[in-house]
Amino acid sequence: MKLAQQLRETNRAEYLLYMWQVENILRAYHCDIELLKEGYLHQFAYDETTMEEVAQWYAELCEMMRTEGIQDKGHLQICKNTLIGLEDLHLQLLSAPNKFPYYNAMYYKALPHLVALRSKSEDGNKSELETMFEALYGVMLLRLQRKEISEDTALAIKDISTLLGQLSDYFKQDKEQPLEFE
Q1: Are 126 and 134 in contact (CB under 8 A)?
Q2: DSSP of 4-32, one letter per residue?
Q3: Per-residue model confidence as pLDDT tens digits over 88-112
Q4: What's the whole-model pTM score?
Protein backbone atom coordinates (compact mmCIF):
# COMPACT_ATOMS: atom_id res chain seq x y z
CA MET A 1 0.00 0.00 0.00
CA LYS A 2 2.65 2.52 1.02
CA LEU A 3 4.98 1.27 -1.69
CA ALA A 4 2.21 1.68 -4.25
CA GLN A 5 1.59 5.24 -3.08
CA GLN A 6 5.29 6.06 -3.20
CA LEU A 7 5.77 4.52 -6.66
CA ARG A 8 2.67 6.27 -7.97
CA GLU A 9 4.31 9.59 -7.17
CA THR A 10 7.91 8.79 -8.09
CA ASN A 11 7.95 6.21 -10.90
CA ARG A 12 4.82 5.49 -12.89
CA ALA A 13 6.37 2.58 -14.80
CA GLU A 14 7.36 0.77 -11.61
CA TYR A 15 3.96 1.61 -10.10
CA LEU A 16 2.18 -0.04 -13.01
CA LEU A 17 4.34 -3.17 -12.81
CA TYR A 18 3.84 -3.30 -9.03
CA MET A 19 0.07 -3.03 -9.40
CA TRP A 20 0.05 -5.83 -11.99
CA GLN A 21 1.91 -7.94 -9.45
CA VAL A 22 -0.66 -7.04 -6.78
CA GLU A 23 -3.46 -8.07 -9.15
CA ASN A 24 -1.82 -11.47 -9.60
CA ILE A 25 -1.30 -11.89 -5.87
CA LEU A 26 -4.99 -11.15 -5.31
CA ARG A 27 -5.91 -13.66 -8.00
CA ALA A 28 -3.72 -16.30 -6.34
CA TYR A 29 -5.83 -15.82 -3.19
CA HIS A 30 -9.11 -15.75 -5.16
CA CYS A 31 -9.74 -12.13 -4.13
CA ASP A 32 -10.50 -13.45 -0.64
CA ILE A 33 -9.12 -11.07 1.98
CA GLU A 34 -9.13 -13.72 4.74
CA LEU A 35 -7.06 -16.10 2.60
CA LEU A 36 -4.78 -13.21 1.69
CA LYS A 37 -4.26 -12.30 5.36
CA GLU A 38 -3.47 -15.88 6.32
CA GLY A 39 -1.35 -16.83 3.32
CA TYR A 40 0.39 -13.59 2.41
CA LEU A 41 0.02 -10.60 4.71
CA HIS A 42 0.96 -12.46 7.89
CA GLN A 43 4.57 -12.70 6.70
CA PHE A 44 5.03 -8.94 7.06
CA ALA A 45 5.83 -7.58 10.50
CA TYR A 46 3.07 -4.96 10.54
CA ASP A 47 1.74 -3.53 13.75
CA GLU A 48 -1.99 -4.01 14.25
CA THR A 49 -3.00 -0.59 12.90
CA THR A 50 -0.84 -0.92 9.79
CA MET A 51 -2.11 -4.46 9.20
CA GLU A 52 -5.69 -3.18 9.28
CA GLU A 53 -4.85 -0.39 6.82
CA VAL A 54 -3.02 -2.74 4.47
CA ALA A 55 -5.78 -5.37 4.67
CA GLN A 56 -8.37 -2.68 3.94
CA TRP A 57 -6.39 -1.54 0.88
CA TYR A 58 -6.17 -5.09 -0.46
CA ALA A 59 -9.86 -5.68 0.34
CA GLU A 60 -10.80 -2.58 -1.65
CA LEU A 61 -8.70 -3.79 -4.59
CA CYS A 62 -10.40 -7.21 -4.36
CA GLU A 63 -13.78 -5.51 -4.49
CA MET A 64 -12.70 -3.42 -7.47
CA MET A 65 -11.54 -6.57 -9.27
CA ARG A 66 -14.88 -8.26 -8.62
CA THR A 67 -16.83 -5.17 -9.69
CA GLU A 68 -14.75 -4.81 -12.87
CA GLY A 69 -14.99 -8.55 -13.61
CA ILE A 70 -11.26 -9.15 -13.74
CA GLN A 71 -10.79 -11.82 -11.07
CA ASP A 72 -9.29 -14.18 -13.68
CA LYS A 73 -7.51 -11.84 -16.08
CA GLY A 74 -7.26 -8.25 -17.16
CA HIS A 75 -6.25 -5.11 -15.34
CA LEU A 76 -7.92 -2.74 -12.95
CA GLN A 77 -9.21 0.50 -14.39
CA ILE A 78 -6.70 2.39 -12.25
CA CYS A 79 -3.93 0.47 -14.03
CA LYS A 80 -5.50 1.11 -17.43
CA ASN A 81 -5.73 4.81 -16.61
CA THR A 82 -2.08 4.85 -15.58
CA LEU A 83 -1.12 3.24 -18.87
CA ILE A 84 -3.28 5.71 -20.82
CA GLY A 85 -1.57 8.63 -19.08
CA LEU A 86 1.84 7.22 -19.94
CA GLU A 87 0.78 6.55 -23.54
CA ASP A 88 -0.47 10.11 -23.95
CA LEU A 89 2.83 11.50 -22.74
CA HIS A 90 4.80 8.99 -24.85
CA LEU A 91 3.03 10.18 -28.00
CA GLN A 92 3.56 13.84 -27.09
CA LEU A 93 7.27 13.23 -26.55
CA LEU A 94 7.57 11.43 -29.88
CA SER A 95 5.73 14.25 -31.64
CA ALA A 96 8.38 16.74 -30.46
CA PRO A 97 11.67 15.14 -31.56
CA ASN A 98 13.56 18.43 -31.55
CA LYS A 99 12.58 19.13 -27.94
CA PHE A 100 13.12 15.57 -26.72
CA PRO A 101 15.83 14.05 -28.95
CA TYR A 102 17.16 11.74 -26.23
CA TYR A 103 13.71 10.20 -25.71
CA ASN A 104 13.23 9.76 -29.45
CA ALA A 105 16.65 8.12 -29.76
CA MET A 106 15.79 5.70 -26.94
CA TYR A 107 12.47 4.92 -28.62
CA TYR A 108 14.12 4.10 -31.94
CA LYS A 109 16.69 1.97 -30.15
CA ALA A 110 13.88 -0.03 -28.48
CA LEU A 111 11.69 -0.13 -31.60
CA PRO A 112 13.21 -3.27 -33.21
CA HIS A 113 12.61 -5.16 -29.96
CA LEU A 114 9.06 -3.86 -29.88
CA VAL A 115 8.44 -4.97 -33.47
CA ALA A 116 9.77 -8.44 -32.62
CA LEU A 117 7.56 -8.66 -29.53
CA ARG A 118 4.48 -7.54 -31.39
CA SER A 119 5.10 -10.06 -34.18
CA LYS A 120 5.02 -12.84 -31.56
CA SER A 121 1.95 -11.46 -29.79
CA GLU A 122 -1.44 -13.07 -30.26
CA ASP A 123 -3.16 -9.74 -29.57
CA GLY A 124 -2.13 -7.20 -32.18
CA ASN A 125 -4.48 -4.61 -30.68
CA LYS A 126 -2.22 -3.81 -27.74
CA SER A 127 -0.47 -0.49 -27.68
CA GLU A 128 3.28 -0.22 -27.95
CA LEU A 129 3.61 0.65 -24.28
CA GLU A 130 1.38 -2.18 -23.12
CA THR A 131 3.50 -4.58 -25.15
CA MET A 132 6.65 -3.19 -23.55
CA PHE A 133 5.19 -3.41 -20.05
CA GLU A 134 4.08 -6.99 -20.66
CA ALA A 135 7.61 -7.87 -21.76
CA LEU A 136 9.08 -6.34 -18.61
CA TYR A 137 6.50 -8.05 -16.42
CA GLY A 138 7.09 -11.39 -18.11
CA VAL A 139 10.84 -11.17 -17.58
CA MET A 140 10.27 -10.11 -13.98
CA LEU A 141 8.21 -13.26 -13.43
CA LEU A 142 10.88 -15.42 -15.09
CA ARG A 143 13.54 -13.93 -12.83
CA LEU A 144 11.37 -14.54 -9.74
CA GLN A 145 11.21 -18.18 -10.84
CA ARG A 146 15.00 -18.11 -11.28
CA LYS A 147 14.67 -18.98 -14.95
CA GLU A 148 17.30 -17.88 -17.40
CA ILE A 149 16.63 -15.37 -20.12
CA SER A 150 18.55 -15.18 -23.36
CA GLU A 151 21.13 -12.52 -24.13
CA ASP A 152 18.83 -11.08 -26.80
CA THR A 153 15.95 -10.86 -24.32
CA ALA A 154 18.21 -9.21 -21.74
CA LEU A 155 19.27 -6.61 -24.32
CA ALA A 156 15.68 -5.95 -25.36
CA ILE A 157 14.58 -5.56 -21.74
CA LYS A 158 17.47 -3.19 -21.04
CA ASP A 159 16.48 -0.94 -23.95
CA ILE A 160 12.78 -1.09 -23.11
CA SER A 161 13.29 -0.44 -19.40
CA THR A 162 15.59 2.50 -20.19
CA LEU A 163 12.87 4.01 -22.39
CA LEU A 164 10.13 3.42 -19.82
CA GLY A 165 12.33 4.79 -17.05
CA GLN A 166 12.85 7.98 -19.04
CA LEU A 167 9.12 8.16 -19.74
CA SER A 168 8.45 7.89 -16.00
CA ASP A 169 10.93 10.68 -15.34
CA TYR A 170 9.21 12.89 -17.89
CA PHE A 171 5.82 11.98 -16.38
CA LYS A 172 6.99 13.14 -12.96
CA GLN A 173 8.52 16.31 -14.42
CA ASP A 174 5.31 17.04 -16.30
CA LYS A 175 3.27 16.76 -13.10
CA GLU A 176 5.62 19.11 -11.24
CA GLN A 177 6.11 21.61 -14.08
CA PRO A 178 4.22 20.95 -17.32
CA LEU A 179 6.54 20.11 -20.21
CA GLU A 180 6.50 22.31 -23.28
CA PHE A 181 6.03 20.38 -26.52
CA GLU A 182 6.09 23.27 -28.98
Answers
A1: yes
A2: HHHHHHH-HHHHHHHHHHHHHHHHHTTT-
A3: 999 999 999 999 999 999 999 999 9
A4: 0.93
